């Protein structure tokens, strides 16, 4: 069985950037594909970028508990199809799911055996800089976003690991290490050792 | 606080070889120095290769619970001084301790917060080949050793991680990943996040 790795963290911490870098560094990971009711953009391919669904189809998925989590943004649904994740894991591959903190908590309810990784900013100053972005926001907006981000950081308690996003290579190396270490958990090797004992007793 | 990593596994699995390779690949780890009552050999330095002790000194260490574990082999005591480990961890450095399985279980009693890593042979055939060694052993000796090794493998249940020693680079990379992942455990970052919350609330 593969592992489901849920990568989350506060708004502005750089989840997307880290995930894009991970795609290059860990091509063996399968990236979870979201379902959405929004229209495909130029070049987007169904089943690769998103699973494109009608509103009726999406609501049927909700009714059949076919989503690990979902949310509605500006009139469109977005969600994580359970079957895609389950089937990929059953094929022995690891799946990574990049998601905001509220979605991650919903995934935890339905899939507690996943590995929950929380991305942290290296400092408040750095977070503020990332949230400020192009400098077009008012002080009030920036302060509100900072408060939200720090509030979201309290959700760290529901996660297994924290990864400091101080430097992209270091952050990716930490995530890669977490995946390798989780594959080394003792429980995964009990059948292997039992098999060896049986073989030598029969010999 | 640094982490204590206990590397163990059945006789013949290649603990020493992996540990020697790790010294090159992870020079940031501090290797635990054993205390012993045996005579120093040519070139061995007190405090580097071993802490050389008289029998009376060693017995005093036992009486004062100054050893994480100890054992007697062919008339000499060998043990792991608790102070060296504790002081190195307190300085923020990780300590690695390579030890046979019985010693590892004793360390676990006195230091349950250590990370216990079990080295596994890639197959029974490979283990037999390593145990057979130079080919000077009788079939009976080899069979006894195989039975002991497989019995020792049942102790895997007391460990946190299992590392397959199929290839030295891969085994070292797994151990390195375990150390990095353990440093990413959520609990270690709670003070960091609490500090950020306090700072933004004061601002």
TrEMBL record, chains A, B:
GO terms for molecular function: GMP kinase activity. Its EC number is 2.7.4.8. Residues 2-180 form the Guanylate kinase-like domain. It is an enzyme of class 2 (transferase). It is found in: Cytoplasm. It catalyses: GMP + ATP = GDP + ADP. This is Guanylate kinase. It comes from Paenibacillus chungangensis. The gene is gmk.
């Amino acid at each position: 069985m593969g592992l489901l790795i849920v990568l989350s963290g506060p708004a502005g911490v750089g989840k997307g950037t880290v995930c894009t870098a991970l795609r290059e560094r860990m091509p063996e990971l399968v990236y979870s594909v979201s379902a959405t009711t929004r229209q495909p953009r130029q070049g987007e391919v169904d089943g690769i970028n998103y699973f494109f669904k009608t509103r009726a189809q999406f609501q049927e998925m909700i009714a059949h508990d076919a989503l690990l989590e979902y949310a509605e943004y500006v009139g469109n649904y977005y969600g994580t199809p359970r079957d895609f994740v389950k089937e990929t894991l059953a094929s022995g591959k690891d799946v990574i799911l990049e998601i905001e903190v509220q979605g991650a908590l919903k995934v935890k309810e339905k899939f507690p055996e996943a590995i929950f990784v929380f991305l942290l900013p290296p400092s408040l100053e750095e977070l503020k800089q990332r949230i400020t972005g192009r400098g077009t926001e008012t002080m009030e907006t920036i302060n509100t976003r900072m408060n939200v981000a720090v509030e979201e950081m309290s959700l760290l308690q529901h996660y297994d690991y924290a990864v400091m996003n101080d430097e992209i290579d270091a952050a990716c190396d930490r995530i890669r290490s977490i995946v390798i270490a989780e594959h080394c958990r003792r429980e995964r090797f009990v059948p292997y050792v039992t098999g060896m004992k049986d073989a030598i007793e029969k010999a």
